[in-house]
Backbone:
């Protein structure tokens, strides 16, 4: 009798473990909706299904994941978080501080995460020294994707500084070619700005101005020059822009309707999914900059504890999603670098190998920089406010550099 009671109690408390025969599907929330991203997300689903885990995907539209994160928050508040969620940057620590994430320390030790992960992936996935998310990708954000045919047609070569880029844009416009594939949304515009700020100002400037928000650096001549270049770019491209998604922009780049795109290497995943050759048809170049540098963001998987999940399931999911086999296949499709150092990159696309080379060089030279736009460097509040100010400046000529700088200075710095 006593035994029956305990069995029943266990079944109620740990439904997944107790009902081994038909465990409920795990819900997987992410913002991977483009062709390349869907291909990669399906690799995750397949890997889990091979481990007998049935997966239901909740894919939420929106590059950068703003909408996905709002939905995650609403679900967590309602007490029904998904089992797995794509997370990035300091948000991981915030979720862990609130007690939502499973501690993955045991797996991390078994799999030697501390020695096998790149240092940038080690720090961001821990809360108070404990691993709370599985590191998956390292994406490079300072890429300039170039349609070679279009440049060839007008006898142009890929520019290596921002003034030359603006000249190239002017030439293309004279030939009625819209130079830049980009949608008029906050995230895409802010990514362009971030590339310009690092490329023109350099790593120290970028750190001081946009990570530390140091007043003197923000008010420096460099900021005024950057804002003036940004205004020139906006004058050239803003009048014909629409609100397309980043992957729709990539499609226009592929079709040769635009010559350039500045975005992370999820673009590479898109090109590969669409059987477009890179770097042959669409070239990958570091966005114009004085030095080699590497702006990154990283995706992780967080395992949420809720009535519908269990520690055992969380461990199975984390083990599958951090394995070398999975990370290799996933990152090849995603266009990213795996978060683990012990993965052979020989079978990866040349653009990824270039990214890896540049990442190592950037690390040695102090030019490995977290993206502020893509939630890696600053708290979500500062990130949202900065992105929105950059967007307003880009779209509103009446906002001058002084006003823009003042608005940045007024952003509350709290976490
Ligand atoms: C994510 C990438 C994703 C990109 C575009 C970034 O924030 O880190 O995984 O492909 O947004 O949706």
Residues:
């Amino acid at each position: 009798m006593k035994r029956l009671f305990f069995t029943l109690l266990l079944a109620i408390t740990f439904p997944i473990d107790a009902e081994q025969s038909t465990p409920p599907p795990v819900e997987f929330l992410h913002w991977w909706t483009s062709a390349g991203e869907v291909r990669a997300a399906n690799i995750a689903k397949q890997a889990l299904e091979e481990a007998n885990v049935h997966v239901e995907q909740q894919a939420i539209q929106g590059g950068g994941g703003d909408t996905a994160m709002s939905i995650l928050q609403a679900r967590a508040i309602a007490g029904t978080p998904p089992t797995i969620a794509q997370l990035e940057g300091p948000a991981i620590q915030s979720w862990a501080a609130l007690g939502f994430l499973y501690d993955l320390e045991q797996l991390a030790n078994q799999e030697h995460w501390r020695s096998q992960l790149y240092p940038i992936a080690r720090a961001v996935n821990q809360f108070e020294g404990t691993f709370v998310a599985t590191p998956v990708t390292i994406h490079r954000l300072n890429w300039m994707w170039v349609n070679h045919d279009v440049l060839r047609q007008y006898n142009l070569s890929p520019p290596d500084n921002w003034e030359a880029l603006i000249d190239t844009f002017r030439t293309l416009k004279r030939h009625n070619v819209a130079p830049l594939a980009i949608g008029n949304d906050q995230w895409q515009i802010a990514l362009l700005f971030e590339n310009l700020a690092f490329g023109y100002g350099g790593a120290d400037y970028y750190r001081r101005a946009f990570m530390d928000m140091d007043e003197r650096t923000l008010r420096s001549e460099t900021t005024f020059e950057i804002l003036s270049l940004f205004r020139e770019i906006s004058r050239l491209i803003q009048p014909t822009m629409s609100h397309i998604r980043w992957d729709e922009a990539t499609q226009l780049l592929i079709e040769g309707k635009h010559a350039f795109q500045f975005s992370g290497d999820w673009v590479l995943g898109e090109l590969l999914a669409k059987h477009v050759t890179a770097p042959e048809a669409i070239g990958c170049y570091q966005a114009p900059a004085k030095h080699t540098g590497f702006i990154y963001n990283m995706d992780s998987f967080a395992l949420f504890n809720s009535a519908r999940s269990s520690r055992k399931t969380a461990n199975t999911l984390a083990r599958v999603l951090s394995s070398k086999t999975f990370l290799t296949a996933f990152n090849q499709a995603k266009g990213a670098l795996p978060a683990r150092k012990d993965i052979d990159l020989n079978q990866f696309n040349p653009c990824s190998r270039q990214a890896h080379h540049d990442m190592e060089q950037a690390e040695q030279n102090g030019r490995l920089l977290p993206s502020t736009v893509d939630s890696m460097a600053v708290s979500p509040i500062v990130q949202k406010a900065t992105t929105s100010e950059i967007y307003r400046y880009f779209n509103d000529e009446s906002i001058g550099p002084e006003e823009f700088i003042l608005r940045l200075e007024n952003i509350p710095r709290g976490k």
Summary: Residues 296 and 370 are 5 Å apart (CA to CA). Residues 31, 37, 63-65, 88, 139, 266, 297, 299, 374 surround beta-D-glucopyranose (CB under 6 Å). Residues 221-237 form the longest helix (17 residues).
